[in-house]
Each structure stands twice: as structure tokens, then as C-alpha cells.
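Re: the request from the purification team.
They wanted to know what the chain is likely to look like in 3D before they choose a buffer screen. I agreed to run a prediction and write the result into the notebook, where they can find it.
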Amino acid sequence: MPYLVAADLPEIPAGDRFRALLAAGGILGIPGAQNGLAALQARAAGFSALYLSGAAMSASMGLPDLGVITMEDVCFFIRQVARAAALPVLVDGDTGYGEALNVMHMVRSFEDAGAAAVHIEDQVLPKKCGHLNDKKLVPAEEMAAKIAAAVQAKRHLFIVARTDAAASEGIEGAVARARTYVAAGADAIFPEALTSKAMFRAFAERMPDVPLIANMTEFGRTPFITAGEFAALGYRMVIWPVSSLRVAARAQEELYHVLRRDGGTAAMVERMQTRTELYATIGYRQYEELDASIIRSVVSEGMPQC
């Protein structure tokens, strides 16, 4: 239903709805949705939560994933995705946009924009994609202070601590950091860029009572693992952060080449979503019906006409 109808909007805070999904058991699949249209399509496919990737948001703006985009840029994406699908959204908060006070401001800003959860990572700025080499990390105590600040600032937001330590400090180092972050108040842990099922299992065995997130990104260090396999390895959530953007970007690239080559789109029409399908996805008819149902305001006689 259109998000403009207030009665149709969820009344329970987004963070609480996210917690309820986790409490339902099993593994929570969270696909990336880089805009409102993708959010609607993911919901139509049956997903109950969405992910906003820093890499996907950056790429959508024509920028690299180096911590370049601002907090306000991210809030713009949160608002459109959360409003469009009315599903809980887990958001990539990069390094928190600064130190403890900045993290607190980020938490309140993301909550106000409609986010359900955020993850903060322990890299040094300028940060890198988690699946690249030569990442630099802040001291664990510095990251723990950010987590504690996020917990203090939140009203309902689910706080996830991401650690990129496996590449440089190994599983034991990553686990040690994760335990420090849990002690600081993190609701869940996101071990980034693990390279095998054995590593995922080893990490989970050392963190048995903490909800864990797995990142199943393509073209990275992690081999292809299904949601069911991650569940068997001890993970409660899995994200596919950039998959939808990769597919959309390849399709757009092919369209532009065909358009330049042929001077028209006939060769691509069979691969396009039709007007009818698009209107069904975005609820065009419901918006028309909503508009028609609104009683027009009448200006009383004697009042200034404008």
C-alpha cells in the first residue's frame, strides 16, 4: 500500500521489528536494495528485511566505496527504502562518520530516517571495501567506545559491530575484538571477509551466544555459500549487499551500448519490465485511487481568492 497513507505504516519501531524477525528463528536473509524500486521488488519476492550497502549507495552516486558519502547522503537512501517497502532496513554505517559523538549523531539520524539496524566497522578512515587488501584497523578499545556511544544514543536501533580483523589478525584476533565489542553493548557481530566455510564455522563456535551476520558478496574473498549453509555454520543473518546493483548495472550498460549501436531499443524490449509491471510494482493504481478519494478543499465565500 502507498506509504502516504499513515494508517498503513508500521506503528512498531523499526528496530523492534528487526529484533522480532531474529527472534522468529532460522536465518534471516537480507538482500541489498539500493533504492525504493529495488526495495519494493525484494518485498514482492518475499523478503522481510532489507540491507543498504555503502558500496551500493556510493556506486549509485558514481563514487567509490572509500567512506566518501556523507551521513545525509545515507539518510536519503534510508528514507526512500524504508518508506517504499515499510520493511526493517539494516544500514551500512561505515566507521560511524567520526568518533563517539559523531556515532551518536549518526544513530539518531538513521533512526529518524527510518533505519532498523546499523553496523559500524573497526577500520581506519579512509576505509576500504572489506574484501580488498591492506585494510587498517583502529585499536579495539577505540571501536568499543564507538559501540558504547551508539548503544547510549539509540532508542530502538539494533547495533551491529563489524570487524575486519580476520585478514590481519586471524580468527583469534577477530574473535577477541568481537568479544570486546559485545561487552561494549553490540547486539550482533559481523565478521567481514572470511574466506572459507571452516573460518565461518570456527568464528561461530567461539561466539556461540551472539547473533552473527555473514556477508555473501560476489567477486570477494568469500566463496559462494547458501543461506541454509550459513545457518548450519551458526549464522543468524546473511546479506547479499551489492547483488541487485550489479545485475541492474550490467543491464543498463548493455542497454546503452545497444542504444548507441542501433539508434533504438528494439533489441532490448524483451528484457524490459513492461509499463504494466512497473505500475503494479510501485502501486500506481493505488495512488490514483487514493488521490481520487481525497475530498477537495473548498474556499469559503468572502475569503480572499488566490
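For the purification team: The two ends are 34 Å apart (CA to CA).
Please add any questions underneath this entry.
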